[in-house]
Amino acid sequence: MRPRIAFFDFASCEGCQLAILNCEDRLLDLLQLVDIVEFREALSEKGARYDVAFVEGSIHREIDAERLRDIRARSRLLVALGACASTGNVQAAANALSPAENFARVYGEAARNRVQADRRHWPLWAHTRVRPIEEVVEVDHHLRGCPVVPEEFLRFLGHVLAGTRPMERPHAVCTECKAAGVRCVFERGETCMGQVTWAGCRAICTRQGYRCDGCRGLLPDANLAAHRRVLREHGLDDEAIDARYDLFCAAGRQAIEEGPL
Question: Do 81 and 6 meet the contact criterion of CB atoms below 8 Å apart?
Fold first, then answer.
């Protein structure tokens, strides 16, 4: 039997699924080797069980967490697809405020009062803190980035078809800059997140003359104290540094700074 593949989305722009659809001819070749049994952006069919479930998006509500647990229970492998699922992405910056305050800022105090008056549905669909999916269920593999790198997705599927598991070797974007012969962003007088960010993007942003903003998430052993010191030396104050970390990595920064439980 061909592996049964499914795609699911939670809070996200669904750009990672679009990046996969843009694989075009290569995706058509893959369809000869796998069965895509659920993929809302591409087909209407529904599947019951999955060999691999790719999950895009962060978790904001308990009703979403319940749906994710159900997907996990029906999947042999579960993959975090992109930055929202892996790190919480930009949405995780909302955790600086309470869910109730966020709700009031978006919909107004009167709307919050109306919802709180009807407690029958509030616990299920009300927003909680923003979570990457690994805070809710076990994740077997991460495909990082905003959006996901199509080549990484295709390589992962190659491992699935071969019955092997890819290795996740933590290394920084800086290594890919060096391999590509890119002049260091700091040498240009700017600041960069590449020293503390997961590689795998082939330094696409710095190769195009921009900086790394950290969309692939913080490395698990990132030395934030040293990185902060370098950023200060290049003119950023603590507020600006926190803003740089929290653009894509708010949840990851909190986990690293708080340390192991």
Answer: no
- Residue whose tokens read 């843009």: 22
Strands (E), 99-235: 127-131, 141-143
Distance CA 158, CA 5 (A): 13
Per domain, the residue ranges of the chain are 4-92+124-162, 173-258
Task: Render pLDDT for 148-187 as a digit per residue (tens, 0 to 9).
Answer: 999 999 999 999 999 998 888 899 999 999 999 999 999 9
How would CATH label the architecture of 4-92+124-162? 3-Layer(aba) Sandwich (3.40)
Distance CA 148, CA 89 (A): 12
Q: Quote the pLDDT of residue 261.
A: 40
What pTM does this model have? 0.88
Please report, for the chain, how many H helices and E strands are present, in that order: 12, 7
- Per-position b or e across 170-190, b if 16+ CB within 10 A of its CB: eebbbebbeeeebeebbeeee
